[in-house]
């Protein structure tokens, strides 16, 4: 009598930045199988990843130690079924997987199929399947809408009495209110406010400047559950420029983007718009005035911003000012622009709406999947360590709520 294959995913419910372990048992020895993951996004698009495996002498496949011989990822990759996810064939062009509703989990269907398959998964009966839940909010984390002092945002508060170290979470040129990183940080014990500040309307964008960020900072600082003197700023992409020079750089970038390079697939390579790095101190952040610890995360294959050159310029400015001891730089070969929380699918290219012209383009962000996902995992742990080192030494310790 043939045994029934058994597929286990542990933990099947977890925070998004938590690894899972996928094991298939009760297979015949040296059986070729395909492990497949499938997720339907909030925009109803389907994303998938798959790896080709061969069971061992005991009839088992253990993803954490066994090699994938093909598929959307190869080699030993415990999280390959997440990080190599891509839109299924026939999907819309330029998709990017982003979670909007952080109060519900990302559901991922993991299945095992007989043989090495690369297509036709819906037409084939799976040997076994499991549904996993990936959460951004741990139990007890509270979500609070913020519309005060002209600021639009969302505050995430960890469980417990506080006070909690605070983080002001700011995203880049894509616009809108992005919450998933803030929710995940709150699950690690930080009071985090995600703010919306880059608006699709170019005219609105020119009005956003330092007072808006100062108001947001004060709102977070004045909250009764936030440690007043323990607050960090966390940003990505355009945010560094917006903090000081939005009035200058946004019109410059929007007016010059047509001069940007395009690759053979007509994808926009925007990094050259920012070069050369200005020598005029009035056109950039005065790094010599920084008096707090600073962590830079740099993707060396960033095709959207001149991050390598900008980081080098920042370092030189701080060295000249005598405050370079405050700077830590994490620089990752093969990583692109969009360095997300760990186990997010690598996004090399996606559709992007230009703020001023309203033209929709394909933006090349850069990166190779394997080194990019390594950068995401490594930088996230170091970001958490950096925040804990500099924010948590004078506040009550927090024990993360597990799912």
UniProtKB/TrEMBL annotation:
Annotated Acyl-CoA thioester hydrolase/bile acid-CoA amino acid N-acetyltransferase domain residues: 17-148
InterPro entries, per the entry: AB_hydrolase_fold, Acyl-CoA_thioEstase_long-chain, BAAT_C, Thio_Ohase/aa_AcTrfase, Thio_Ohase/BAAT_N
Family named by the database record: Belongs to the C/M/P thioester hydrolase family.
Species the sequence originates in: Hucho hucho
GO BP terms, alphabetized: acyl-CoA metabolic process; fatty acid metabolic process
Highest taxon listed in the record's lineage: Eukaryota
Annotated catalytic residues: 237 (charge relay system), 302 (charge relay system), 337 (charge relay system)
Protein name per UniProt: Acyl-CoA thioesterase 19
UniProt GO MF annotations: fatty acyl-CoA hydrolase activity
BAAT/Acyl-CoA thioester hydrolase C-terminal domain: residues covered: 250-391
């Amino acid at each position: 009598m043939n045994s029934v294959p058994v597929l286990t995913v542990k933990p099947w419910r977890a925070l998004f930045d938590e690894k899972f372990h996928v094991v298939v048992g009760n297979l015949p020895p040296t059986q070729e199988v395909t492990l497949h993951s499938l997720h339907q996004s909030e925009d109803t698009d389907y994303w998938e990843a798959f790896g080709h495996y061969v069971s061992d002498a005991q009839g088992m496949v253990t993803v954490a130690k066994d090699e994938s011989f093909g598929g959307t990822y190869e080699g030993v990759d415990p999280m390959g079924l997440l990080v190599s996810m891509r839109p299924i064939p026939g999907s819309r062009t330029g998709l990017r997987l982003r979670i909007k509703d952080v109060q519900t989990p990302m559901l991922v269907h993991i299945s095992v199929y007989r043989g090495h398959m690369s297509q036709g998964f819906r037409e084939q009966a799976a040997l076994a399947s499991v549904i996993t839940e990936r959460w951004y909010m741990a139990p007890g984390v509270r979500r609070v809408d913020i519309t005060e002092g002209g600021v639009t945002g969302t505050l995430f508060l960890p469980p417990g009495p506080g006070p909690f170290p605070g983080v002001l979470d700011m995203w880049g040129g894509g616009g809108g209110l992005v919450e998933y990183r803030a929710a995940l940080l709150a699950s690690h014990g930080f009071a985090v406010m995600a703010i919306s500040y880059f608006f699709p309307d170019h005219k609105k964008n020119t009005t956003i400047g330092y007072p808006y960020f100062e108001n947001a900072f004060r709102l977070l600082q004045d909250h009764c559950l936030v440690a007043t003197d323990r607050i960090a700023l966390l940003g990505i992409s355009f945010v560094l420029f917006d903090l000081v020079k939005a009035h200058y750089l946004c019109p410059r970038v929007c007016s010059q983007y047509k001069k940007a390079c395009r690759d053979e697939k007509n994808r926009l390579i925007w990094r050259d718009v920012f070069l050369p790095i200005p020598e005029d101190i009035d056109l950039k952040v005065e790094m010599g005035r920084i008096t707090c610890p600073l962590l830079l995360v740099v993707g060396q294959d960033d095709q959207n911003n001149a991050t390598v050159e900008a980081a080098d310029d920042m370092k030189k400015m701080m060295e000249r000012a005598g405050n370079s001891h405050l700077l830590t730089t994490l620089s990752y070969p093969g990583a692109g622009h969009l360095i997300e929380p760990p186990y997010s699918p690598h996004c090399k290219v996606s559709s992007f709406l230009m703020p001023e012209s309203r033209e929709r383009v394909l933006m090349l962000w850069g990166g190779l999947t394997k080194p990019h996902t390594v950068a995401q995992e490594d930088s996230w742990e170091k970001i958490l360590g950096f925040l804990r080192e500099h924010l948590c030494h004078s506040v009550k310790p927090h024990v993360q709520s597990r799912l």
